[in-house]
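Example 3.2
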Amino acid sequence: MTWIKPSFLWMMYRCGWATKEGQETVLAVEIDREGFEWALRNACLSSYEPGVHPDRATWQRELRRSPTRVQWDPERDLRLQPLPYRSLQLGLAGEAARRYADEWTAAIRDVTPLAHEIHALVRDDDLDSARGLLPREEPYPAAEGLLSSLQP
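Structure, written as tokens:
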């Protein structure tokens, strides 16, 4: 399974500012909206949620047949500490992973130098400068109902 992590700081948490073994390179992958929304429409939550799924067996059936899954993880601040709200992580397998690689990808940029630059500013306690270098992120303008079955 391949995971899309739309949050820069959550990705920095995951890869340790591009310092964890095997995660020393960070790529920003731009995908088209049509592909991202296809993935969301065909997604299942990665864990059973009693208020969302009628029962565990139904959720397990959905999970087995779904080419994508959604998981909500705490967003992170510049010191990579959890914030009181969550960001969506989108797992792709099978058909979704193929479409991601072959159809949806519009651009790929190496943002490792940016990760290192921001991390150095954070280490120097220059959070204002670090914040100024962060990629612009905004809540996704999802069409009504698109995320309704994906909210825990």
